[in-house]
Amino acid sequence: MPALYDPLTAHCVPRRMRLYWTVLPYPAYQKPTLIAMSAVLIATLGAEPQVVSLATYLLLAQRVPLQAVFVLHTDASHPPIGQALPLLRDAFAAQPSWPPLHTVPVQAVDALTPQELDCFGETFFQTLQSQLTHGRQIHLLLAGGRKSMAMVGMSVAQLLLGPHDAIWHLYSDDTLRHSGRMTPTAGDQVQLVAVPLPHPAMASPQFTPTAQAPTRAAALATVEALRARQAQQFIASILTPAERDLAVLVAREVLTAEEMAARLHKSPKTITNQLTTIYSKLESAFGLQP
Questions:
Q1: 108 and 162 assigned to the same domain
Q2: Can you give the CATH number for the domain in which 201 is found?
Q3: Which of 24, 217, 218, 248 makes an SS bond possible with 213, Cβ 3.0 to 4.6 Å?
Q4: Taking the model in full, what pTM does it have?
Q5: Mean pLDDT, range 190-211, rounded to an integer
Q6: Do residues 50 and 147 share a domain?
């Protein structure tokens, strides 16, 4: 169990480590304490297994408290996964201080057809959701495998990840990449580059509706339902009846201010003022810039 730390000494924690601490709830008569957040690396596997081992090496070098590494892969009986998996397992076996490696098979030969991508997306969703449920910080690496896997993986990340999670791109020079070395040596140029991801919800991801959905499809449906509910609330509660009539007309037809004024039996100036008000309310409610 990780040691507890008094927040009064939190300034002693290196700056790069502060991401990995969280404040525990505490009664008013007690001091708050900080506890190290456990973290996991979740990666996809392709023809270059060293991508995963290099990322693991770099995260540990940054003192990220990795508890496990999860690697998603397609059918291991087909190349190049059949060659990459043993190399990756051997690399982790050679590093006893590294966290355990867990391979997560995707029940698909590849990740090209819609059915294969759906299968990968669902497996990826369930893997992330399982770790978030345990309160773990996610480090995500989508450099391995097909580009289609990275695109689906990013869509899942947008559904589930929170502000304390991270997505990485691995950069390495040609010499290291072509060598096939599983860990870097002196002179190798290799680094993790953070990939920014917007976080619309500041709450911990396990408390969001999408993270509680049973499947990826259900999470996507939840997002659409939330958007529809926000739009309905905006129309019903934020707009006045006169503004609603004008908004419906704008949505249905392309008309000039004069034409809209004639339809609604108002002056063009009134229409212009109401449109300005509607746009202002849209900006306040949704951040839209008409």
A1: yes
A2: 3.40.50.10770
A3: 218
A4: 0.71
A5: 75
A6: yes
Question: What is the structure's pLDDT at 229?
Answer: 82
pLDDT of 257 strictly over 50: yes
Q: What number of other Cβ atoms are within 10 A of residue 69's Cβ?
A: 24
Domain-ending residue, one of 181, 208, 235: 208
Question: Which residue from 144, 132, 230, 153 is spatially nearest to 197, judged by alpha carbons?
Answer: 153
Provide CB contacts within 8 A for 22, sequence distance 6+: 34, 35, 37, 164
**Number of CB atoms found within 10 A of residue 184's CB:** 20
Tokens of 183: 């860990």
Give yes or no: residues 225 and 81 share one domain: no
Cβ 169 vs Cβ 143: under 8 Å: yes
- Summarised one tens digit per residue, pLDDT across range 37-54 is 799 999 999 999 999 999
Torsion sign, CA atoms 32, 34, 158, 287? positive
- Which residues constitute the domain of residue 259? 219-286
Confidence of residue 24 (pLDDT cuts 50, 70, 90): very low
Please, what sign has the CA dihedral across residues 72, 75, 81, 86?
positive
